[in-house]
Amino acid sequence: MKKILLRLSMATLVAVCCATLLIGQSVGAVPVAAPATGGLDITAKSAFLMEANSGKILFEKNSDARLPIASMVKIMTLAVIYDAIDAGDIALTDMVMVSQTAESMGGSQAFLDFDSEYSVEELVRSIVIASANDSCVAMAEHIAGSESEFVNRMNALAEKLGMTNTNFVNATGLPAPGGYSTAADVAKMYAYIMTKPSYSLFTGTWMYDLAHPSGRVTGLTNTNKHSRFFNGCDGGKTGFTQEAGHCIAVASKRGDLRPLAVIVGASDSKTRFAESAALMNHVFDGYQNKKIVSRTDVLGEISLKGAKDDKAPVFAQTDFFDLVKKGDKTQPVVNVEISDSAKAPLKATDAVGTISVTVEGKVVKEIAVVTGADVETLTYWGAVKKIVSKYKF
User: Fold this and answer.
1) 74 tagged catalytic
2) How does pLDDT run across 350-372, given as a tens digit for each residue?
């Protein structure tokens, strides 16, 4: 490895593109542990606050307590749906037939017509905006054949995300024995859907008229009041049952700050919105986020052995944000080590070096250096062409 040592101030990081490294966004990563912050009067049974770009935890109250979470279960329902879209298994334009089981669901509904077809886009929109139980079951049956099989997929994804205190028993969050989660686990799955391309398609909608095949129109209003009244809110999921109380997971964004707050078991709806707003404002009022490493900036070039091209640009695999309290003058140091013996073939994600971010002598983050694109092996005829191209005839 050849070692390139970059000791960069924030001003230099902005000025020198090759020194400004990063990670795309750490949203969806396992949160970075940090001490709980005092000064917040949260009355709900459980609460959790993290800054999603940096992954830092800023407040916890009984965050690992296993509790019913009502319709926040639908966050995982959406996660499985979004994964199916990303994998190409379904498309937003696909039509979904509504079964008798789906049509008969109680609680929050889109009042779907039995034995009628709706697009995936319409059903997902009704889940995000109106927490529609009938749409959840219709989508579960469409993707997995049955709600029970869909729930298996939900639990498998929960395990993958490290949600060790969660068990799903249905796709809706309606009361049922054996279903539970925690504020910390809810944050993990919400951070996950924030990374999905489909996430931003529906979260900003306040009201929506769902036109049914029968000609009826159902007016749907977003259950997340923050989507209209909290500056920067970019999505959220509410929930309520007598057993769970009033719940919400909500995210917002202003500049590079992206707080994600979870409230479980508030006494009433007004309290869940007030306390989740207080958590998000705690981040906006007291912190600043510095992008120390950016995955879009070229760090330099790497020499390649046995490759179609002799050199390739290299990048940080991900972004890195340094979340600090306002007024903190600490200057991170960025160290870059790039291999001098990389060989083809290489995948876009194969590490060809390492970035270390150090704060006050402590390494706080290590990030792989990658080519960002597959590197092909030089073929025999490719080698011949290279040799010929060096001579003029």
Assistant:
1) yes
2) 888 999 999 888 998 999 999 88
